[in-house]
Amino acid sequence: MYPRWLWPAFALPGVVWLLILFVLPFYAVVGVAFGSVDPILLTAVPAWNPLDWNFGWVSEVLTGLEPGGIYWDVFIRTVRYVVLSLAGCILIGYPVAYYISRHASRTKSLLLILLVLPFWISYLMRMLAWINLLSPGGYAERFLSATHINDLLYHLGLVSDPNNYLGGESFTVIVALIYGYIPYFILPLYASLDRIDRSHLEAARDLGASPWRAFLHVTLPLSRTGLLGGAVLITLPMFGDYYTPNIVSGAPTTSMIGNQIDLYFHGGPQPTIGAALTILLSAFLVLLMGYYMWVIHRASRDLPA
Amino acid sequence: MSQAVATGRTRTQEFSTWRRLRGWIGNPWGKPRFLVVITWTYIVWSIAPVLVAIQFSFNDSRSLTVWHGFTTKWYTSTSPDINSVFHDPALRGALQQSLRLAFFDVLIAVPIGVLLAIGLARWRGRGSGGANFLMLFPLVTPEIVMGVSLLLLFSQLLTIVPFGTWAQVLGHVTFSISYVVVIVRGRLFSIGRSYEEAAADLGASPPVALYRVLLPLLLPAVVASAAIVFAISIDDFVISQWLSNGANTTTVPMTIYNATRATPQPSTDGIATVIMVITLLAVVLGVLVFRFFTRGEHARGSAIDDVAGFGI
Question: What is the rounded distance in angstroms from the CA atom of residue A267 to the CA atom of residue A255?
Answer without folding.
Answer: 14
